[in-house]
């Protein structure tokens, strides 16, 4: 049984989502801190080039994207449920909306000049410039562009009103009942991001019901964790054997064959290519086999939704 290892950095919103998922599941995990900007040589030794944060490592299996990390944690520990029975579709769809539309809107609001001035008040100018160039590169090859600040300000009240309505109509204190689901954590990490400075915090705090709900979601904490040096995480991968493939038929509608060398990349942003041998294509997951001098043989896992396969 391998430890759960999260590769992340403290201020990443999606890393906060993953940390909350681990806390909700009451799981113990190891923490590997990574740089917030490229290069990330220890991380990409595991992923083959995927640069987004966070990444979950379990032995020689590497899970990219919190949408898939959530499903891996559900397999690790079935209860409490991230996908409540009878609400699986609703939860997954709302979580996907939050991770894309709501998140990109929050990014635009957080990155407005007044907010960024506070966030980077004590950061050297050259590091601020490096961060800006890195984030511009993140969006350079994907299918989405940043939401304009004017559009983000226009849309935000509608999103918050709809969330308030969902909370009011729910048969419990959370979006889909008496306990949090993946949808709660997907929405919460966007709002957590906004509350980082007094410029954007009122966009959450001016809605008392949402503020109270957010406090309950964040209150699950991050579980029990301890620090792990990146080199040790790579050694763990080198010395481990990847887990058996899922017991599900290989299904690839675009004609890619099992064992074929391919590239997988994100569609929206951070679309750095990862090359390897296509081992598995299922309803929710794609798996590449790749080999690295530092990490050894690893299986890199991606969600099917939001990613595409290309010929090498």
Automatic annotation (TrEMBL):
Transmembrane spans: none
UniProt GO MF annotations: transferase activity
Keyword ATP-binding applies: no
InterPro entries to which the protein is assigned, alphabetical: Glutathione-S-Trfase_C_sf (IPR036282), Glutathione_S-Trfase_N (IPR004045), Thioredoxin-like_sf (IPR036249)
Keywords: Transferase
PROSITE patterns xref list: GST_NTER
Protein name: Glutathione S-transferase family protein
Species whose genome carries this gene: Stutzerimonas degradans
Lineage start: Bacteria, Pseudomonadati, Pseudomonadota, Gammaproteobacteria, Pseudomonadales
């Amino acid at each position: 049984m391998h430890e759960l290892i999260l590769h992340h950095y403290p201020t990443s919103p999606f890393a906060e989502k993953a940390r909350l998922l681990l806390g909700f599941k009451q799981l113990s995990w190891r923490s590997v801190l990574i740089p917030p900007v490229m290069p990330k040589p220890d991380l990409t030794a595991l992923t083959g080039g995927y640069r987004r944060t966070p990444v979950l490592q379990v032995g020689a299996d590497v899970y990219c994207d919190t949408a898939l990390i959530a499903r891996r944690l559900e397999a690790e520990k079935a209860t409490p449920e991230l996908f409540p029975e009878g609400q699986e579709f609703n939860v997954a769809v709302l979580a996907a909306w939050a991770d894309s539309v709501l998140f990109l809107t929050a990014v635009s609001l957080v990155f407005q000049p007044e907010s960024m001035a506070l966030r980077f008040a004590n950061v050297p100018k050259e590091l601020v410039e490096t961060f800006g160039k890195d984030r511009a590169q993140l969006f350079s090859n994907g299918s989405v562009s940043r939401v304009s600040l004017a559009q983000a300000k226009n849309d935000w009240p509608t999103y918050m009103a709809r969330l308030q309505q969902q909370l009011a109509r729910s048969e419990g204190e959370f979006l889909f009942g008496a306990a949090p689901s993946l949808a709660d954590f997907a929405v919460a990490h966007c709002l957590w991001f906004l509350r980082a400075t007094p410029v954007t915090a009122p966009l959450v705090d001016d809605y008392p019901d949402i503020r109270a709900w957010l406090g309950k979601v964040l209150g699950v904490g991050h579980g029990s964790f301890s620090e792990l040096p990146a080199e040790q995480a790579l050694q763990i991968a080198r010395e481990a054997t990847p887990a058996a493939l899922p017991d599900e038929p290989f299904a690839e509608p675009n004609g890619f064959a099992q064992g074929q060398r391919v590239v997988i990349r994100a569609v929206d942003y951070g679309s750095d290519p990862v090359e390897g041998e296509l081992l598995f294509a299922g309803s929710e997951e794609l798996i590449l086999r790749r080999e690295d001098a530092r990490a050894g043989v690893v299986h890199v896992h991606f969600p099917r939704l939001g990613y595409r396969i290309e010929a090498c």
